[in-house]
What does this fold into?
Amino acid sequence: MEQKITSHTVEILGFTERERILFSSIFRLSQLRTHRYHEPSRGDTTQPDCLVLDSNLPDYAQQLAARLSAQPALIVLVVFDQGAPRDVPCATVNRPIRWSEFLLALDNQVRALHNQKANEEQELVEDFVADEGIDAIANEVEISSISDWFEHQEPITFQTAPGVLVVDPDEASFLYISAKLAGQLYRVDWAKSAEEALDFLTLNRYNIVISDTELPDRDGIALCGLIKKRQDRRRTATILLTHDTSLLRRAKAAMAGCDAYFVKPISPENLERTMQKFLPSWRMTNTASMPRDAG
It folds into this structure.
């Protein structure tokens, strides 16, 4: 069934320059979807039907109340640093802003406003219109939504190279990733299943886990959740690779603690850019013999 395309004007109040750049990227991506969002163009006097509001504004509560009073049908999304108060009369998302959760929150309000029956699996799978470049664009937006975990200043000395665990039942996928990382001095191990990956994580320390979503014994999203529940591995970055493009799966991955979600194939350049988001500037120590659990 052909999807009806809707277009919505979004006003942005507050936010850092980096967040505003991210919103612009998200809105450009939305032009390839059935629900499309854009900021008002210069000189446009059309009243916005959506408002994205920064809770860090000192008067955000007053602005929210005033705007809803003047425009009851206004679609509002408030961004909080942490969990939203229970009495907020609109949709909310938390920082760091994940583009899939952001779009889902807006989409759900659009459907509710038009009394559309939510059929998430069908709606979200069919959400993107056919376009050959959509996966590459989505991957680019995903990278831009990831904040650096470290300030890249004075290099940190590592006793061993940063550890990367690849979790994928397909040896060809492991060989592809390890070959692309070979020139970067990363220490790369391979697990064929979620259980094998958990065994590796018990014995060794890894900076990054790159996993397929389709594993023989457990879903890759579930594996991310298990890793993040371990107190000693919460600062292990988790990157999921998949063929599933739906926003629903992306949102579930984010809720499980997944740090990045990419549609296959991801280019070596984008994989390297992503990994640098999760690593400090580093250099190797000159010590010849070092323990496996260093770094």
